């Protein structure tokens, strides 16, 4: 059973693994940590049961001997499980949380099953779900989001974490008739949300795609209607500041903007968004009289630039 998990001893080895396998799950551990020892049998069992060579790979990194990787991924809790899809960090599970680990891996396995069915059982990278068509000449740059730096204010505690907004998988509420997992977020005390998104590189942002699936018969939540976008803030705003500040672009979404995939594709003032280091999305108001507003996915379309140092964010003018 031990052979089911690949030992990673260097950054070069991990980088090669991320290039060769579309889905990689990495456990950071220490042999001296009791929590790591307790969850190891479960991790080994999952690797044996669902691991697939060059498709879904389970790996582990010794926290005591690979300090370069520990620092690169900001490991502060043991064990920590990091899940990569096509080389991009998608999920992090901290601690010996077997329920959360099973839940996250379960979602990936579901995607994997669809992939294998569509390819007649052959391996290969999963196709990302499209909520709307991507404008010609541009690409999906959602993988440039620095997930660890994202912050969502006024989120309902019972909804999913902010990182689910940037998943490439199809929202569970679409095609199933109802949500079977908390892969969406919604507001808590009222119908406002403030989302701060830092990027790994300076990007040219062309289009913002927002998916909001309202379960049939649910009148307690609504889709966003009034949205303000702010550029290159060094941290999240508070609601009072967002109300008073002049946004880089204001958006009003009408019912006809939402397609059959519950996605609105918003064209941005491309000249304004040529040098985007961070984006703040202020959902100021939802539709109708609902007490909360819901978002299932956010996709960012444009062009990515060179990666930058996330510790040296500088506040830039909106007009730059």
TrEMBL record:
Domain PITH: from-to ranges: 130-320
Keyword set, alphabetical order: Disulfide bond
Domain Thioredoxin: 1-110
One CC-aspect GO term: cytoplasm
Keyword Disulfide bond: yes
UniProt family annotation: Belongs to the thioredoxin family.
Name assigned to this protein: PITH domain-containing protein
